[in-house]
Design a protein that fits this description.
Structural class: alpha/beta
Shape: elongated
Number of strands: 44
Oligomer: single chain
Distance between the termini: 108 Å
Helix content: 10-25%
CATH superfamily of the largest domain: Spore Coat Polysaccharide Biosynthesis Protein SpsA, Chain A
CATH topology of the largest domain: Spore Coat Polysaccharide Biosynthesis Protein SpsA, Chain A
């Protein structure tokens, strides 16, 4: 029996499957649901348990899955365990068992293809497991169409006695609506003894982890369960259609929470896509066609959209608007106006009261307060002071294609550039300096100075009329020859 004295917890995620019905070269668990991989979402949910370690069983395209884990470190230490060949879920846990020789506590074991599974649901399972002093606990849920899920078998008292896989079930068992989503809690090392009893005498010739439930019942071990009200939270992803349905459901849950709990207006709930990681302040309006994914924080009284895309880590202050624009890993201050058709690339920071207008692209730049870049400009690898005005068509030429180096441009407080000017980095415009329209700047412009590199203007009187006469004469000559 589990004496409940240990508070140690570990998690095992079963991520070795191929997912043939996905018809993809990418492992199933690396497909994204609203900007985050399925495995990434499971790791985040597992982190909420505050486990001491997460074990991930890998198999199909193991190198890709292992690289993803290395490139995206979890809050919890993670190790991988190769399952080759893949001989079932029971066989998968056998690959982890040697790493658990010094572990005694609660072992949470879950499939890794349920992107909507929350940390709260996992906590409810762990709580039920500990409260019941159980050796084996499992999540269950009811579903009208059980498809290929294993069915929960109960006795006349209502106790769980086992799980029968769909392919091995009788017609009467297939009529059972309570299914097993393959998410468990085990008292370890007690359950380790069950692994040696698993057999592959079934149609799939696999070692089923579900047989651990029957082992516990046979040996009179306590079995507990936690029932999930909405089966869709624990639904596995096995096809592109199911992936799309998971995205829609996650979108709907997120939008409902924002509207009901955060005071956010979502004008078009079906045409707006927002990931659950996104936080939005009250009285902000999200217009149709927006796609917001990543660790995004948007303040109060903002207007986002229409047709705005935000990705990665993005912060937007209060009272700002972002219309028909793309924002990636950038910060936008309060009382800013971005768009329409602006592109804020990675590592861009707009301070308060900044205006970025149509067809302006900014990358790796800091724009200080009350600065305007309103039209048709590129600002890259730059620092702009306060009260700067960027004229239409201004370009910071930051890249030398021969040396492959990028240099910075600095524009100090109160400086301004005229239309169609080019600033060839590295270069500095000192405080209050002015660049005339059409000027190419290659060296520092001193404080309060005017920089101009245009050829002096010359006017040729009568030139236009003379040109017309020549053109008419040419037409007449051509007509004669024709």
């Amino acid at each position: 029996m589990n004496d409940g004295s240990s508070e140690r917890t570990r998690v095992v995620l079963l991520a070795a499957g191929q997912g043939k019905r996905m018809k993809s070269d990418l492992p199933k668990v690396l497909h994204e649901v609203l900007g985050k991989t399925i495995l990434g979402r499971l790791l985040t949910a597992s982190d909420e348990l505050k486990p001491e370690h997460i074990h991930v069983v890998i198999g199909h395209e193991a190198e890709k899955v292992e690289k993803f884990i290395q490139d995206n470190p979890s809050a919890t230490p993670v190790s991988t365990h190769l399952q080759k060949p893949q001989l079932g879920t029971g066989h998968a846990l056998m690959q982890v068992a040697p790493s658990l020789k010094d572990f005694s506590g609660t072992l949470v074991v879950s499939v890794a293809d349920t992107p909507l599974l929350t940390g709260g649901t996992l906590k409810a399972l762990v709580d039920a497991h500990k409260k019941s002093n159980a050796v084996v606990s499992l999540l269950t849920t009811d579903v009208d169409d059980a498809k290929n899920y294993g069915r929960i078998v109960r006795n006349e008292k209502g106790d769980v006695t086992g799980i029968v896989e769909h392919k091995d079930a009788t017609e009467a068992q297939r009529a059972i609506k309570e299914i097993n989503p393959a998410i468990y809690c085990f008292a370890w090392p007690q359950v380790e003894a069950a692994l040696s009893t698993l057999k592959n005498d079934n149609q799939q010739k696999e070692y089923y982890l579900t047989d651990v439930i029957g082992w516990a019942h046979k040996n009179s071990h306590k079995i507990a369960y936690s029932k999930v009200p909405d089966w869709r939270e624990v639904a596995g992803i096995n096809s592109r259609l199911e992936l799309a349905e998971a995205m829609r459901l996650m979108r709907d849950i997120t939008i409902n929470n924002l509207a009901l709990e955060s005071g956010v207006t979502i004008v078009d709930t079906q045409g707006t896509w927002i990931a659950p990681e996104v936080k939005i302040g009250k009285d902000t309006v999200v217009l149709p066609g927006c796609h917001l994914t990543g660790e995004i924080e948007i303040g109060q009284n903002c207007t986002i959209g229409p047709n705005t895309v935000m990705k990665g880590v993005v912060h937007v202050g209060d009272n700002s608007s972002v219309a028909q624009s793309l924002v990636h890993n950038s910060d936008i201050g309060s009382n800013c106006k971005v768009g329409p058709f602006s592109h804020l690339r990675e590592h861009t920071a707009l301070h308060d009261h900044v205006k970025v207008g149509n067809f302006v692209e900014i990358k790796k730049s800091i724009i200080n307060s009350k600065t305007n870049a309103s039209h048709l400009s590129y600002i890259g690898d730059s620092t702009l002071g306060s009260g700067v005005n960027i004229g239409a068509g201004t370009i910071t030429a930051n890249y030398d294609h021969i040396t492959k180096k990028k240099e910075r441009t600095t524009i100090c407080d109160g400086a301004s550039t005229g239309s169609n000017s080019v600033l060839v980095a590295p270069v500095t415009l000192e405080e209050g300096s002015v660049v005339a329209a059409g000027t190419v700047v290659t060296k520092t412009v001193p404080k309060g100075s005017l920089a101009i590199t245009r050829t002096p203007q010359k006017n040729y009187e009568g030139w236009a009329e003379e040109r017309k006469k020549k053109a008419e004469a040419a037409k007449l000559e051509a007509a004669k020859k024709g």
